[in-house]
Specification:
2 domains, 37% helix, binds adenosine-5'-diphosphate, Nucleotidyltransferase, domain 5, single chain, 402 residues, eight-stranded mixed sheet
Amino acid sequence: MKVLVINCGSSSLKYQVLDMTDESLLCKGLVERIGIDGSVITHEKIGMDKFKLETPMKNHKEAIGHVIDALLDANHGVIKSMDEIGAVGHRVAHAGEYYNKSVLLTPKDIENLEKCIPLAPLHNPANLTGVAACQELMPGTPMVGVFDTAFHQTMPPESYIYAIPYEYYEKYGVRRYGFHGTSHKFVVAKAAEMLGKKPEDLRIITCHLGNGASLAAVDHGKVVDTTMGFTPLEGLVMGTRSGDIDPAIVTFIEKTEKLSAEELDNILNKKSGVLGISGISSDFRDIEAEAEKGNKRAQLALDVFIHRVRHYLGAYIVEMGGVDCIVFTAGVGENDKATRINVCKGLEELGIELCEKRNDVRGEERVISTDESKVKILLIPTNEELMIARDTFNIVTGKGVK
Ligand code: ADP
């Protein structure tokens, strides 16, 4: 069976088709500027050159129409008829407390996800628009929802309740949800496989360090804590997001700089993080290059980032009463050996011993701890699209998902 994976943003759409007989990727693509001048689709059949078409696309339905045309194209297409697509897996950002795993989307589920729009006002509407457009253009094809929040729903109340009046949780669902769940789930399964164990036998800390970054403590297969909260702003220092700050800073800056709530939101989400500290870039490669030239604020940004990762690493080791495995993934985690060295530095007493030689690698699945290290340290490239396709395939073939 072939599965189409759709990740729909407000003006963009990413897609992939995977053949689930061997989980191979057949094609991938991106539609940009949907509903704006200059709409464009870039399609790549694996093994062939990219194909680009600039053509007006007023809405997501038209965009998905062009995706379907590309999939069916005699030259760079990957299917002869849409019947070959057995199911569509949709990335949906927020499923609130409704779902702890992926589901086959029924009208009732869509209603539930619409109720989650206040929790993810930018993402859920776009994701649901993608579902509706696919349903219209592919009637009869099963649609599966895969949620960023689902994997974290196993967190106990002491992890997810904020110490603010309880009524905000009851009335508005203000609690910690966590994000990047699809990535954390993917690397947990892969880590267990690499160690010849089941996730249920392991205490794993997954470090998804990309532009957005989060850690998760996965105790015997269940998330017990994660660093992102009510929104993806909480927790680690990120490319442009502040992560944890004293909440009083918000009102202080609001009053002192006379800013609106929207302006503050923009500062904390888009102008903070390592960009805010360094004043240079949100990209670790730029910051590291500047730090090497002696730029003190660039070095400070890197130091603060590492400090926060280690802060949570320590917390999660205590929460789980130990750790068997630490996983590094996503842009920084996969590619930046210096970050991995600095996170693990001086932790030998905790049984965490990185092998500098094995760590001298980029984006490759491998064990990077020493043979003596009690805690296995793994580098695992994440693959959220494959995880979405797997869940989708397992649901529509009746195998079910955990
Ligand atoms: P997103 O959250 O946007 O999916 P990614 O997981 O793709 O982010 O990570 C992108 C980030 O990874 C870049 O902004 C950059 O900081 C970092 N990165 C990529 N390659 C390297 C590298 N070789 N060294 C250091 N950082 C890197």
